[in-house]
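Quick one:
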Amino acid sequence: MSDPVIVSTIRTVRVRTHPATNLGKLQAIDRTQAEWKRAVDFYTAFFLDHQDVFAETKIGRNRKKELVAKPWTAQDLLTWAERGTVRTKAHPVILREFAAVCPQMPTVLRRAAINAASGAVKSYRTIHQTWDQTDPLQRGHEPPLPDPHPFLTLYDGMVNLDTARAFCTSRCWMRAAGRGWRFRLPCLPMRWTSSWSRKPRWNG
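Output:
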Protein backbone atom coordinates (compact mmCIF):
# COMPACT_ATOMS: atom_id res chain seq x y z
CA MET A 1 0.00 0.00 0.00
CA SER A 2 1.34 3.41 -0.90
CA ASP A 3 2.17 5.97 1.77
CA PRO A 4 -0.55 8.46 2.70
CA VAL A 5 0.16 12.01 1.56
CA ILE A 6 -0.35 15.47 2.95
CA VAL A 7 -1.76 17.84 0.34
CA SER A 8 -1.63 21.61 0.63
CA THR A 9 -2.68 24.35 -1.77
CA ILE A 10 -0.50 27.33 -2.64
CA ARG A 11 -2.29 30.25 -4.28
CA THR A 12 -0.40 32.68 -6.47
CA VAL A 13 -1.97 36.03 -7.34
CA ARG A 14 -0.64 38.17 -10.15
CA VAL A 15 -1.77 41.79 -9.96
CA ARG A 16 -1.28 45.08 -11.75
CA THR A 17 -1.52 48.55 -10.30
CA HIS A 18 -4.62 50.66 -10.72
CA PRO A 19 -4.28 53.47 -13.31
CA ALA A 20 -5.24 56.02 -10.65
CA THR A 21 -2.37 55.10 -8.29
CA ASN A 22 -0.47 58.26 -7.36
CA LEU A 23 3.00 58.89 -8.75
CA GLY A 24 4.79 58.65 -5.40
CA LYS A 25 3.60 55.09 -4.79
CA LEU A 26 4.45 54.02 -8.31
CA GLN A 27 7.96 55.42 -7.93
CA ALA A 28 8.37 53.54 -4.63
CA ILE A 29 7.41 50.30 -6.35
CA ASP A 30 9.80 50.96 -9.25
CA ARG A 31 12.69 51.66 -6.88
CA THR A 32 11.93 48.61 -4.78
CA GLN A 33 11.87 46.46 -7.92
CA ALA A 34 15.17 47.97 -9.10
CA GLU A 35 16.82 47.10 -5.77
CA TRP A 36 15.29 43.63 -5.93
CA LYS A 37 16.76 43.04 -9.41
CA ARG A 38 20.15 44.27 -8.24
CA ALA A 39 20.04 41.84 -5.30
CA VAL A 40 18.96 38.90 -7.47
CA ASP A 41 21.74 39.64 -9.98
CA PHE A 42 24.26 39.75 -7.12
CA TYR A 43 23.22 36.37 -5.73
CA THR A 44 22.88 34.78 -9.17
CA ALA A 45 26.52 35.67 -9.89
CA PHE A 46 27.48 34.50 -6.39
CA PHE A 47 25.91 31.07 -6.85
CA LEU A 48 27.39 30.73 -10.34
CA ASP A 49 30.83 31.36 -8.86
CA HIS A 50 30.25 28.72 -6.17
CA GLN A 51 28.32 26.00 -7.99
CA ASP A 52 29.91 23.30 -5.85
CA VAL A 53 27.40 24.11 -3.08
CA PHE A 54 24.65 22.49 -5.16
CA ALA A 55 26.47 19.18 -4.75
CA GLU A 56 26.65 19.51 -0.97
CA THR A 57 24.79 16.97 1.13
CA LYS A 58 23.78 16.53 4.75
CA ILE A 59 22.94 13.47 6.79
CA GLY A 60 19.24 12.81 7.37
CA ARG A 61 16.83 9.93 7.77
CA ASN A 62 14.72 8.40 5.03
CA ARG A 63 11.28 6.80 5.40
CA LYS A 64 12.88 3.67 6.83
CA LYS A 65 14.61 5.79 9.48
CA GLU A 66 17.97 5.00 7.89
CA LEU A 67 20.74 7.59 7.89
CA VAL A 68 21.36 8.74 4.32
CA ALA A 69 23.00 11.67 2.52
CA LYS A 70 20.49 14.22 1.29
CA PRO A 71 21.13 17.23 -0.98
CA TRP A 72 20.95 20.68 0.52
CA THR A 73 17.51 22.25 0.60
CA ALA A 74 16.65 25.80 -0.45
CA GLN A 75 16.86 26.75 3.23
CA ASP A 76 20.39 25.31 3.46
CA LEU A 77 21.44 27.29 0.39
CA LEU A 78 19.92 30.45 1.84
CA THR A 79 21.75 30.00 5.14
CA TRP A 80 25.05 29.37 3.34
CA ALA A 81 24.58 32.40 1.08
CA GLU A 82 23.84 34.71 4.00
CA ARG A 83 26.87 33.52 5.93
CA GLY A 84 29.02 34.16 2.89
CA THR A 85 27.73 37.62 2.04
CA VAL A 86 26.33 39.27 5.18
CA ARG A 87 28.90 40.30 7.78
CA THR A 88 27.89 39.69 11.42
CA LYS A 89 29.66 39.34 14.75
CA ALA A 90 29.28 35.57 14.48
CA HIS A 91 30.59 35.55 10.88
CA PRO A 92 32.98 38.51 10.41
CA VAL A 93 34.79 36.91 7.46
CA ILE A 94 32.69 36.67 4.30
CA LEU A 95 33.23 35.75 0.66
CA ARG A 96 31.52 38.76 -0.93
CA GLU A 97 30.02 41.95 0.50
CA PHE A 98 26.30 42.22 -0.25
CA ALA A 99 25.98 45.51 1.64
CA ALA A 100 28.26 47.14 -0.93
CA VAL A 101 25.60 46.51 -3.58
CA CYS A 102 22.36 46.88 -1.61
CA PRO A 103 23.08 48.61 1.69
CA GLN A 104 20.47 48.31 4.45
CA MET A 105 18.19 46.05 2.42
CA PRO A 106 15.53 44.46 4.67
CA THR A 107 16.19 40.83 5.54
CA VAL A 108 12.90 39.58 4.08
CA LEU A 109 13.65 41.18 0.70
CA ARG A 110 17.23 39.91 0.66
CA ARG A 111 16.15 36.37 1.45
CA ALA A 112 13.53 36.45 -1.30
CA ALA A 113 16.29 37.48 -3.72
CA ILE A 114 18.53 34.64 -2.53
CA ASN A 115 15.76 32.09 -3.08
CA ALA A 116 15.08 33.44 -6.56
CA ALA A 117 18.76 33.30 -7.47
CA SER A 118 19.44 29.82 -6.07
CA GLY A 119 16.38 28.45 -7.85
CA ALA A 120 17.46 29.98 -11.16
CA VAL A 121 21.01 28.65 -10.91
CA LYS A 122 19.84 25.20 -9.82
CA SER A 123 17.52 25.04 -12.83
CA TYR A 124 20.32 26.22 -15.11
CA ARG A 125 22.63 23.47 -13.82
CA THR A 126 20.00 20.81 -14.51
CA ILE A 127 19.38 22.07 -18.05
CA HIS A 128 23.11 22.43 -18.74
CA GLN A 129 23.81 18.92 -17.46
CA THR A 130 21.19 17.50 -19.82
CA TRP A 131 22.69 19.49 -22.70
CA ASP A 132 26.21 18.36 -21.81
CA GLN A 133 25.17 14.68 -21.82
CA THR A 134 23.37 14.94 -25.17
CA ASP A 135 25.10 13.85 -28.36
CA PRO A 136 26.88 16.93 -29.80
CA LEU A 137 25.33 16.17 -33.19
CA GLN A 138 21.82 16.32 -31.72
CA ARG A 139 21.97 19.08 -29.16
CA GLY A 140 21.44 22.74 -29.93
CA HIS A 141 23.21 25.81 -28.62
CA GLU A 142 24.63 25.77 -25.12
CA PRO A 143 22.04 27.00 -22.57
CA PRO A 144 22.56 30.67 -21.65
CA LEU A 145 23.47 31.71 -18.14
CA PRO A 146 20.47 32.22 -15.86
CA ASP A 147 18.83 35.62 -15.84
CA PRO A 148 15.92 35.49 -13.35
CA HIS A 149 12.86 37.53 -14.26
CA PRO A 150 13.04 41.09 -12.90
CA PHE A 151 9.56 41.08 -11.39
CA LEU A 152 9.47 41.52 -7.63
CA THR A 153 8.06 38.48 -5.87
CA LEU A 154 6.33 39.29 -2.58
CA TYR A 155 6.18 36.50 -0.03
CA ASP A 156 4.24 36.11 3.18
CA GLY A 157 5.09 38.97 5.51
CA MET A 158 5.82 41.38 2.67
CA VAL A 159 2.29 41.95 1.41
CA ASN A 160 -1.35 41.68 2.45
CA LEU A 161 -3.90 41.21 -0.32
CA ASP A 162 -7.52 42.22 0.25
CA THR A 163 -9.23 40.60 -2.73
CA ALA A 164 -12.70 41.66 -1.62
CA ARG A 165 -11.86 45.34 -1.99
CA ALA A 166 -9.07 44.92 -4.57
CA PHE A 167 -6.46 46.49 -2.31
CA CYS A 168 -2.91 45.41 -1.72
CA THR A 169 -0.97 46.55 1.36
CA SER A 170 2.70 46.15 0.57
CA ARG A 171 6.04 47.10 2.07
CA CYS A 172 8.27 49.04 -0.29
CA TRP A 173 11.87 50.03 0.20
CA MET A 174 13.92 52.83 -1.32
CA ARG A 175 17.70 53.11 -1.12
CA ALA A 176 17.54 56.85 -0.42
CA ALA A 177 15.31 56.36 2.59
CA GLY A 178 17.05 53.20 3.73
CA ARG A 179 13.87 51.94 5.35
CA GLY A 180 10.59 50.36 4.48
CA TRP A 181 7.05 51.56 4.96
CA ARG A 182 3.56 50.28 4.29
CA PHE A 183 0.90 51.89 2.16
CA ARG A 184 -2.37 50.81 0.57
CA LEU A 185 -1.88 50.17 -3.12
CA PRO A 186 -4.91 49.83 -5.43
CA CYS A 187 -4.47 46.70 -7.53
CA LEU A 188 -6.40 44.76 -10.13
CA PRO A 189 -6.16 40.92 -10.08
CA MET A 190 -4.89 39.65 -13.44
CA ARG A 191 -4.49 35.95 -12.88
CA TRP A 192 -5.21 33.48 -10.11
CA THR A 193 -3.42 30.14 -9.97
CA SER A 194 -3.28 27.33 -7.47
CA SER A 195 -0.61 24.66 -7.19
CA TRP A 196 -0.68 21.45 -5.22
CA SER A 197 2.15 20.35 -2.97
CA ARG A 198 2.18 16.63 -2.17
CA LYS A 199 4.42 15.44 0.65
CA PRO A 200 4.68 11.80 1.76
CA ARG A 201 3.71 10.99 5.32
CA TRP A 202 4.57 7.80 7.09
CA ASN A 203 4.08 6.41 10.56
CA GLY A 204 7.12 6.67 12.76
